[in-house]
């Protein structure tokens, strides 16, 4: 039974990849439009791939250094191995490949969506969403296939081959080596997200400030030299960066649950590994239910509600997953379980999963409310645009700050509720339940940039007005779904980080993190500061790159006669080059902060204070960065999304104090300024927060054995010692006596 189920996990990952290939082939077969459309799409595809290759080259140097350090560190403690370096490399390659899958399909689907929009909104939605679903299934399929296959390998190598128990140090070693896969995925994700975000916003801001504000030409006008770089940026930031981001989030969530599952002694039909296998099984089934949910994403005609269609697909996959989890939990887990002295039942685990799905749904709904057109928050920004640029900025900042209240309350309720159900394992499995439908979530997210590119190609190709109207409908919905996706991602990051935090505490051998101790409190403050300096570096990088872009666009308008009369072609490649160089240069320092800070605290303060260990200080650092990072992520992503849709509202016309205002009006110009400020908020620093907090937690988990207060401390070591004593006294009653003794020791 155990052998069958353990192989089902990577098989489900393969199912996702097979369906992905089928959908990708369907998109490729769609019509591409006329020669001009194909030429413009070619510029975008070439620019996107040029950036990706340049980014991979830089990251390959980082990967080599990280592999050498991890291989060396794997020899230093008993519960690790040099194999962790190989695990890291596989995670990094899979993460990069996930981004490539998204980039490749998005640059094919964009022009095909434009062509589809020449016939109907229904067909345009089908092409763009199918393109997005290729990315969603590719990311989820690769994650489940990679994690499931490596777990089988390491479980056999470190546990089964030596006849060890599931709850001992051998399984700890297997999961520690597996953590390298997550570390590789999150490391690449951070650089991809930050680098892609800097690229896309430098081009976007430069194109807006000179094109729309100064020259008074449309957003995606072919005369704007930065317009190709802007459309390339949608792919490298919102597609490749987002794909790597959610790949890392998906893997980290599953891993955190597995690490905590190791601490549960389970009398089951799977050799005692049911609590470890459960999150992987949920992820695999989530792929299947996401595929089913994708069939619900359709509309009848041009008057159909695109947002409702996407919601139907999302909610149906969530409902299917929730129903299936009941039967999976009842089938896999024993009636009663315990973790660190906290007793719970298998039904409590099911309730925690349902709570996780509910939290994810509520987070998406709340985020949609704060960023969608026609809602009170966006209307408040529109109204205050009437009195100028400054009041628009004030309104957007206020909306962003207000938007943290309800999500934090929902998140806090989810944490307390899932903990009440099943302790720390409940918190982790709630996050795993929330992330189970990542394939669908990412399909909805990736659909937005494809629709945005489609609108850009329609504008640059000077297609009939009804084509742009259809792509604008998709683009507006895409902005809202992108914001909802970011809210969902930051919520899952918070739950995942708490689970990783709990796993770190167990491996590092500390019982509590006492902020009354001055060094711990100091580390807490430093952790709270990191998201601010990280955001500052990312936003400043966008500003510097945007200045270069603005100067280049102005130069071309000034020095190339005939651009404004369509008689001369702009030098698009110069703008693409500016964004590429700036993003690669500026992404390194923010990434280094996330990777190096936990190492500096963990090793730099080891044995410095008599009463406080560096592990406890590192715990304080993680607590600070998690709370601050979650708030900063929500604030920036929601403020940016609200500013963006406030600007887009003027395209159809808005009523302010009884008067109608449209594009090129003074309130519209104020909204463009707000959107320009919000661009790096929502697409660079904001969405990077969830990777930042998870990456720091994973780094801490990887170094935990090296800074542990005792060689094998923590709850599990007590269980192992008890088992040895009972083995010595009465070998026939090992399992029964172990379960009785755990409660008294923990």
From TrEMBL:
Pfam family, one: H_PPase
Stated regulation of activity: Requires K(+) for maximal activity.
Regions that span the bilayer: 6-28, 58-77, 83-106, 127-158, 276-297, 309-329, 349-372, 488-510, 522-546, 587-605, 617-635
Main location: membrane
Subcellular location: Cell membrane; Endomembrane system
Top-level enzyme category: translocase
Molecular function per GO: diphosphate hydrolysis-driven proton transmembrane transporter activity; inorganic diphosphate phosphatase activity; magnesium ion binding; potassium ion binding
InterPro entries: PPase-energised_H-pump (IPR004131)
Record's subunit section: Homodimer.
Protein name stated in the entry: Putative K(+)-stimulated pyrophosphate-energized sodium pump
Organism annotation: Algoriphagus yeomjeoni
Recorded name of the encoding gene: hppA
